[in-house]
């Protein structure tokens, strides 16, 4: 009986985190995650709690991507949320220390493309530099 309980608990532990993200991703897409292990160790707030705060700030939204990063010296979870029927994304920043939403703004599709191009330049500088 104890082994059945252990197996059930392990199965639950393995399925719940994945189903959390599957339920919030736009239909037919997976949630993109960039959660560096070294930063995750510094976080006081779980990814799940931060996601809950972000989704509460933007009703009827779904998570497209999440990133754990240092921004202006502060450790934050940055969520890109999509709202069905609305263009662009809502970017919501949640403190990985307090769990509070620290910023929220709308990015048009054009703004989002510009940001991605800028990130590519920062992460992949031209050869020879």
Task: Please characterize this protein's 3D structure.
The chain has 129 residues and is α+β, with helices and mostly antiparallel strands. Strands 1-2-3-4-5 form a 5-stranded mixed sheet. The longest helix has 23 residues.
What's the CATH architecture?
A: Roll
What overall geometry do the principal axes of the alpha carbons give?
Answer: globular
Q: What does the main sheet amount to?
A: 5 strands, mixed
The number of strands is 5
Q: How many structural domains in the coordinates?
A: 1
Structural class of the secondary structure composition?
alpha+beta
How many helices in DSSP terms?
4
Helix content: 40-55%
Low-confidence stretches: 1-23
Q: How far apart are the termini?
A: 63 Å
CATH topology, which one? Answer: Nuclear Transport Factor 2, Chain: A
Order of helices and strands: HEHHEEEEH
* Nearest-integer average pLDDT: 80
Query: For the CA atoms, what is the radius of gyration?
Result: 17 Å
Q: How large a portion of the residues is in β-strands, by DSSP E?
A: 25-35%
* Strand ordering within the main sheet: 1-2-3-4-5
What's the CATH class label? Alpha Beta
Entry keywords:
single chain; 129 residues; alpha+beta; Nuclear Transport Factor 2, Chain: A; five-stranded mixed β-sheet; 4 helices; 41% helix; globular
Short structural description:
The chain is of the alpha+beta class.
Which secondary structure elements does this structure contain, and how are they paired or packed?
Layout: H1 2-24, E1 32-34, H2 37-40, H3 47-57, E2 62-71, E3 74-82, E4 89-95, E5 101-107, H4 109-123
Parallel strand pairs: 1-2
Antiparallel strand pairs: 2-3, 3-4, 4-5
């Amino acid at each position: 009986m104890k082994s059945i309980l252990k197996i059930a608990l392990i199965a639950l532990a393995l399925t719940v985190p994945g189903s959390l993200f599957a339920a919030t991703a736009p239909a037919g897409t997976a949630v993109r995650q960039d959660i560096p292990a070294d930063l995750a160790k510094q976080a006081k707030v779980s990814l799940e709690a931060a996601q809950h705060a972000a989704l509460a700030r933007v009703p009827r939204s779904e998570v497209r991507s999440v990133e754990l990063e240092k921004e202006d010296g502060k450790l934050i979870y940055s969520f890109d949320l999509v709202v069905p029927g609305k263009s662009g994304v809502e970017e919501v920043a949640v403190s990985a220390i307090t769990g509070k939403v620290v910023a929220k703004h709308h990015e048009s599709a054009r703004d989002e493309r510009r940001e991605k191009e800028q990130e590519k330049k920062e992460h992949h500088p031209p050869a020879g530099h």
